[in-house]
Amino acid sequence: MNLNIFKQSNKIAVLTGATGGLGKKLVSYLLEEHYKIIMIARNLAQLEQISLHYGDKVIIRICDISHLNEIQYLCEDIKKQFHHINALIHCAGNIYPGSFSNLSDQLILNQLQVNLNGAIFLTKGLLPLMRKKSSIVFINSLGGIFPLKDSALYSASKYGLRGFALALAMELRPRKIYVSSIFPGAIDTQMLHNEMQNGGSLLNFCSPPLEPEIVCKTIMKALKKKGLEYYIPKWSGLQTKLLMLKPYFILRLMPFVEKFCEKRKKNWQKNNLHS
């Protein structure tokens, strides 16, 4: 598909993880706000299926952001066709739950590459196209401010992403380029189902898993309001921040928290079994 169809567009959004549960939902929200969307993902068949539905309002590009050479090629491809982009939204992410000692080196590297390094290098590559009042939005996680037992690498990558976003926001603000981070709890997508089938953290159920639409609305709010950080639900963000003032107490509280979350997990599994 040719990028030239977008040359007359006013607002351009680049979206990674476009075939995931959150990314697919977000496409329709962006189109409602008259963005033209460059959808980025690894799976060509899924990208083509989505593009058939939306027609020339979207363009698809294959890129595995765990590979630096693919990111570089993608950025050069976009630069050749566009003079600007208005929004860069990082939805791509992965998680391989389990004990750190049992993770292979490849799984360790993959989580860091997709969740952190890929977002950093793609931002660097496309930053020259960012206009004044444009936005960079990172989809982080409450796991980026609160440690997740048995998901140490996921937490590490998301903690790093938060630090990068905060520092980048200070650096780019004088140029009127705004950086926002979204911190949802668990989102009820296929990624969560896959995670829980492989021993995912019980902390996913401190609050009921979020519908993707709720997160999409928050992303759209960030694009308009240019806020620094958004927590979903808000009270979870507040609780998490308060707990992190005294990390030592987390070790003592965790057995009680896990017991509470185990009950919610079972209820969630029952509901999904009957749905």
Q: Main beta sheet: strand number and arrangement? A: 7 strands, parallel
CATH architecture descriptor: 3-Layer(aba) Sandwich
Structural domain tally:
1
**Principal-axis shape:** globular
Q: Low-confidence segments, ≥5 residues, pLDDT <50?
A: 1-8
Summarize the structure.
This protein has 275 residues and is an alpha/beta fold. Helix content is 51%, strand content 16%. The protein has one domain: Rossmann fold (3-Layer(aba) Sandwich), CATH 3.40.50.
Task: Describe it.
The radius of gyration is 19 Å and the shape is globular. It is built from nine helices and seven strands, in the order E-H-E-H-E-H-E-H-E-H-E-H-H-E-H-H. By secondary structure, it is of the alpha/beta class. The longest helix has 28 residues, at 247-274. It starts with 10 loop residues before the first strand and ends with a helix. The protein has a single domain (3-274), classed as NAD(P)-binding Rossmann-like Domain (Rossmann fold). The model is unreliable at 1-8 (pLDDT under 50). 51% of the residues lie in helices and 16% in strands. It has a seven-stranded parallel sheet with strand order 3-2-1-4-5-6-7, sandwiched between helices. Helix 1 crosses helix 7 and helix 4 runs parallel beside helix 5 (152-172). Strand 4 (85-90), helix 4 and strand 5 form a beta-alpha-beta unit.
